[in-house]
């Protein structure tokens, strides 16, 4: 089968990376909307128009299902919209439920990091209201991390300074779990762990999203396949400099997640 995976930019590569490892027999098309990144500072209506074009592009390419590897885009879309298409469209939301199910019994707090659109969106608020009965969840917007990631800057004095400033009003030792609620933020797990030295758990939505795809399409995770992946930047096949950027993201993901 061929699975379409898209994001506003390079963040969704973390989902793709995971999907490729789990589903070596499948082919993938990865679409980064490099012309329009970041989505997290646009209006939901602007995002819906961009996403609509991407979904139609993927369908023309003949994909069997689509993963929206972007919490922000998922937040801007309704379920009814996703159901209008003839193939399954799997979204992503910050792994708040996973954080509460796994570690909610601990006394410590949970910090959800995401883009402004996701943090302000109704979807996340409804989710938190539904699962956070003990009022342990705090939210923080970190839009600048998306810009750093797009430049391939994953660790620098600037990144450290930005994070320190953005998080200065939060009591960092009080958090037991950090939820990486934007796929671009996965690249900064190491950097964040330096700041959150007493925080044992960092959770993301990659595995849950890929498992949902496997369930919906009844895919086999048998090893030994030789799937192919094509990459597009805003509808155009990636050129050499794009491939270089993708490669540096991959190296960072291997470091952060320790997947080979
Ligand atoms: N990677 C996206 C997410 O998971 C959004 C980044 C952006 O374009 O602002 O939310």
What are the salient characteristics of this protein?
10 strands; Rossmann fold; alpha/beta; single chain; binds D-glutamic acid; 6-stranded mixed beta sheet; 2 domains; 44% helix; 260 residues; 4-stranded parallel beta sheet; 12 helices
Characterise this structure:
The protein folds into two domains: 2-92 and 206-256, Rossmann fold; 96-203, Rossmann fold. Helix 1 packs across helix 11 (206-217). The chain is of the alpha/beta class. The chain has helices spanning 13-22, 44-60, 71-76, 79-83, 96-103, 116-120, 122-131, 144-150, 157-166, 189-195, 206-217, 240-257; strands at 2-7, 27-32, 65-68, 89-90, 109-114, 137-141, 175-180, 201-203, 229-233, 236-237. It starts with a strand and ends with a helix. The chain is 44% helix and 17% strand. The strands form two sheets. Strands 4-3-1-2-9-10 form a six-stranded mixed sheet, with helices on both faces. The structure holds D-glutamic acid (DGL). D-glutamic acid (DGL) binds next to helix 3.
What topology does this entry show?
Elements: E1 2-7, H1 13-22, E2 27-32, H2 44-60, E3 65-68, H3 71-76, H4 79-83, E4 89-90, H5 96-103, E5 109-114, H6 116-120, H7 122-131, E6 137-141, H8 144-150, H9 157-166, E7 175-180, H10 189-195, E8 201-203, H11 206-217, E9 229-233, E10 236-237, H12 240-257
Parallel strand pairs: 1-2, 1-3, 2-9, 3-4, 5-6, 5-7, 7-8
Antiparallel strand pairs: 9-10
The structure holds D-glutamic acid.
D-glutamic acid (DGL) is lined by residues 7-9, 11, 37-40, 70-72, 115, 118, 146, 182-184.
């Amino acid at each position: 089968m061929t699975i379409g995976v898209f994001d506003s930019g390079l963040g969704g590569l973390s989902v793709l990376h995971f999907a490729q490892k789990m589903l070596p027999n499948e082919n993938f098309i990865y679409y980064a909307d490099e012309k329009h990144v970041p989505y997290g500072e646009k209006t939901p209506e602007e995002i819906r128009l961009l996403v609509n074009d991407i979904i139609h592009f993927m369908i023309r390419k003949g994909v069997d299902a689509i993963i929206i590897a972007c919490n922000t885009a998922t937040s801007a879309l309704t379920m009814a919209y996703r159901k209008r298409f003839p193939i399954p469209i799997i979204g992503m939301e910050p792994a708040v439920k996973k954080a509460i199910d796994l570690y909610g019994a601990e006394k410590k707090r949970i910090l959800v990091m995401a883009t402004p659109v996701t943090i302000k969106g109704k979807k996340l608020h409804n989710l938190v209201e539904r699962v956070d009965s003990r009022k342990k969840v705090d939210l923080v917007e970190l839009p600048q991390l998306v810009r750093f990631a797009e430049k391939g800057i994953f660790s620098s004095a600037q990144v450290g300074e930005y994070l320190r400033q953005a998080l200065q009003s939060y009591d960092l030792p009080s958090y037991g779990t950090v939820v990486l609620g934007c796929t671009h933020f996965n690249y900064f797990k190491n950097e964040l762990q330096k700041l959150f030295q007493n925080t044992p758990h960092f959770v993301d939505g990659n595995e849950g999203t890929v498992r949902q795809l496997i369930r919906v399409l009844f895919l086999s995770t048998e090893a030994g396949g030789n799937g192919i992946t094509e990459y597009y930047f805003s509808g155009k096949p990636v050129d050499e400099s794009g491939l270089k950027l993708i490669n540096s993201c991959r190296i960072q993901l291997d470091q952060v997640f320790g997947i080979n």
